[in-house]
Every structure is written in C-alpha cells, then in structure tokens.
Amino acid sequence: ELFFEVVAKHDKETLLEIIKRKIVIGSFIISDCWKAYDCLESEGYRHLTVNHSENFKDPETGAHTNSIEGTWQKIKH
Fold it and tell me: What is the pLDDT of residues 48-59, one digit of tens each?
C-alpha cells in the first residue's frame, strides 16, 4: 500500500507520528539512510535501508527505493 502526506517539517517527530498512524507495527519499511528513520526498528518496524551514496540497491538485502523514486518524480511534476 502506498500513501503520500504533505508535511511542513521533515523531522523525526513529524515523520514518526505519520508512520505510527498509517503503518502497522511489524511492517517492512524501506528507506534511504536519512537519520530521521534511524528509530524505526526500535519502534517495532522492519527497516531496510539503501545508502544511495554507495548504491541504488543494497547488495546484501536487495532493498531498493527505485519504485517509489519513480512515483515521486511523477507526483512532483
């Protein structure tokens, strides 16, 4: 499932409130390595990351954000 929400702030507290409201604990979340997402595992989510400065697909887990990046490009324009 996919959702988008406009936010005024991109900080940890704002994003975590939205994540907790919209995403079931235990769900997989795949993101980049932005520090605001560092708490997701401790909040009960299964968090996979992609370090875009090193690769576009994590070589160990296979995690990637290519699909959402493409969708995001369509929404922004």
Answer: 888 766 676 666
Question: Which three-class secondary structure string do you get for 23-34?
Answer: CCCCCEEEEECC
User: E strand or H helix at 46, and its extent?
Assistant: strand 46-50
- Give the number of other CB atoms < 10 A from CB of residue 31: 17
The two structure tokens encoding residue 61: 């887990």
Q: Is the dihedral of CA 56, 62, 65, 70 positive or negative?
A: positive
Please give the torsion angle defined by the CA atoms of residues 60, 66, 68 and 73, in that order, rounded to the nearest 10 degrees. 150
Tell me the whole-structure pTM to 2 decimals. 0.72
CB 7 within 8 A of CB 14: yes
Residue ranges per structural domain of the chain: 19-76
Structure tokens at 9: 């702030």
Is residue 73 within 8 Å of residue 65, measured between CB atoms? no
